[in-house]
Amino acid sequence: MKSKTSEIADGVFFVHSEMVNWVLLTDGDAVTVIDTGYPGQRGDVEDSIRAIGRDPQGIEAVLITHAHVDHIGSAQYLADTYAAPVLVHPDEAAHARRECHEVATPWDVLSNIWRPGVLRWATKLIQLGGTAKYGVDSPTAMPVPGALACPGGPVPVLAPGHTSGHTIYHLPDRGVVISGDALITGHLTSPVSGPQLLPRWFDHDRTAAAESLRIIGEVDADILLPGHGPIHHGSVAEAAATARERAGSAL
C-alpha cells in the first residue's frame, strides 16, 4: 500500500496510493500538506515529505478537502507533532470536529458489499484504521475567498455535496485543481476509470455533488489532482462534464 510521489509542476507534488491521494506544495523548505490519508498512512505522509527533500518539521499548514477519515486520518497527528495548523472551510469545521457526521454508514457499506470491489475496499479500509473516529480537535476556519497565505498559495473553492463544506484548491498560476472527492478518476468500488463521481452512497448530498461539477468546470485548469485515482491531464471543464454525463440518472 506504499505511495508514489510525482512532481507535477514546480513545487507541486502529487502522492498517489491505492486507497487515497494527497498533495504537497512547497516554497523553499516550507510545506503545505493537502489531505493526510488514513490513520495508518501517517508514516507514508511523513516519508513522502522526506522523499521530496523536505523535513516534516517544515510543515506550515495542513489543508483538508473534507473531513472523511481517509483525508484527515493524520491531520491531528501532524498538528500535534509539528505544530501545524489544520485549515478547513468554515462550512466543514463542525464536521472536522465530529460534531456532525456526513459519512457512509456501516449499513451503507454492508448493503453494497455485493458490488465488485466493495469488500476489497472495506478490508483495506479496516487495515488502515478507517473505522476509527478520527477528527481534528481545533481546526482553523480558513479565510475565504482568496489565496491562502501558505506555501503554494492555494485558492480554496467551496464544492459541496460529498460533504457540506467540501473544498477544492486551485493553483491558478500552475493550471492545477486539487479536487478531493468532488471529482475523482478511479476508486476500488467503481467499475470505470476516468473522471467520475464516487458511487452515490458515499455522498452526503448527491444533487449538490452533481452541481459542484459545474463549479469545478468553471475553474481554469488543465491538470486535475483527485482524491482517488490517477492524475488527469487535459481540460478540467471537460473532465467535469464527463463525470456528470457518467453519473446520468444516478444523480
What would you say this structure looks like, in words?
InterPro entries: Metallo-B-lactamas, NDM-1-like, RibonucZ/Hydroxyglut_hydro. This is MBL fold metallo-hydrolase. The chain is an alpha/beta fold. It has helices at residues 42-51, 69-72, 75-82, 93-96, 106-111, 118-127, 206-217, 236-247; strands at 4-9, 12-16, 22-27, 30-34, 59-63, 86-88, 140-141, 155-158, 167-171, 176-180, 223-226, 232-233. α7 packs antiparallel against α8 (236-247). The protein is globular. The two termini are 32 Å apart.
What's this entry about, in short?
This protein is an alpha/beta fold and about 250 residues long. Helices cover about 25% and strands about 20% of the residues.
Features:
8 helices; NDM-1-like; alpha/beta; 251 residues; Metallo-B-lactamas; 7-stranded mixed beta sheet; 12 strands; MBL fold metallo-hydrolase; 5-stranded mixed beta sheet; RibonucZ/Hydroxyglut_hydro
